[in-house]
Amino acid sequence: MDATPASAVLSRRTFLRTAFTAAVLAGTVAALAPVLRARRPRQTLTPAPLTEETYRGRHIAVDLAGVRIDGRPLHVMRRADGSYLSGINHFQSFESPLELARAAVDELGTNQLALAAPHHG
């Protein structure tokens, strides 16, 4: 006969049943994770513009990602006092990014902004 008490057999069975159930649940989650991730709406690369206008024949877009003139990014810096400045006209501050972009268009004239340079790694 078996020398193992009945309570030890039940606890071993309970342990194995629990381990098996946990393994099945973990496998199901791992299998369904890519499907559930694919169903989430994807964020667009370019956020919708907060402000968009044509100024002196140039398209200006101001959004959460920054300022673009004719689709090219304008490097904008925020000052401690809340005003903005850029590399195009860095000696003058502007109250809003839109005012800054208009001044950059005035300064650029018919020239285009350079494409964004790669960041230092």
Largest sheet: 4 strands, antiparallel
Structural class by SSE content: alpha+beta
- Could you give the order of the helices and strands? HEEEEEEH
Q: Supply Rg.
A: 30 Å
Q: Tally the helices.
A: 2
Helix content: 25-40%
Low-confidence stretches: none
What is the spatial order of strands in the main beta sheet?
Answer: 1-2-3-4
**Distance between the first and last residues' Cα:** 72 Å
Mean pLDDT: 83
Strand composition percent: 15-25%
Task: Please tally the β strands and state the result.
Answer: 6
Tell the overall outline.
rod-shaped
For the structure shown, list the relevant keywords.
single chain, 121 residues, two-stranded antiparallel ribbon, 2 helices, 38% helix, 20% strand
List the topology elements.
Elements (H helix, E strand, L loop, with lengths): L5 H34 L11 E5 L2 E6 L2 E4 L2 E3 L1 E3 L5 E3 L10 H12 L13
Antiparallel strand pairs: 1-2, 2-3, 3-4, 5-6
